[in-house]
Amino acid sequence: MCGRFVITGDPFGIGFKDNFNITPGTKIPIKTLDSDGELKTWSYSPLWKTDMNLINCRYETMNLKPSFKKAKRCIIPFSGWYEWTNVEGKKVPYYHYTDISYFAGLSNDSGCLIVTQKSIGKNSVIHERQPGLVSNNNLSDWLMHGFLDDTSSDFGINFYKVSNIVNNPINNNKTLIEEQ
């Protein structure tokens, strides 16, 4: 789920540049209750096990896992994300987008991760999980340990097939999100 995503613009005014192929380990902008915007590494380890390198966690169980007990809530801006599905034995990438602008996330001193939920609607034909999305109306609630927006809503998520050049993390330009 969501092993790559896209951020265009400088969402929090901290000098971030367009990135059309964000991979785990990349420094990405996040916002927490304590910070109006900072760069964090997209890779999370609990403070007691510094080599875990998690990039996501399940919303349904995050409050039960010791790894996330001391994590701060964060929001991660995005323009879209990539998911792959198997078509006749080949991995085919799809670009997903919606009007929502933020992933739900968790962070600590080591980095951050994306909170995931069960895929809803037509999105579930590509992958069984999707990023947890946070609407502008729910930003404060999420950051203050509230709930995700309605997890049964598909949030108008759309997707289309893109070129497999996105498979190579070296590639990073606007052509990656062009429909094929």
TrEMBL record:
Name listed for the protein in its UniProt record: Abasic site processing protein
GO molecular function annotations of the record: lyase activity; peptidase activity; single-stranded DNA binding
EC number: 3.4.-.-
Pfam family, one: SRAP
Keywords: Covalent protein-DNA linkage, DNA damage, DNA-binding, Hydrolase, Lyase, Protease
GO biological process, one term: protein-DNA covalent cross-linking repair
Keyword Protease belongs to the record: yes
Stated family: Belongs to the SOS response-associated peptidase family.
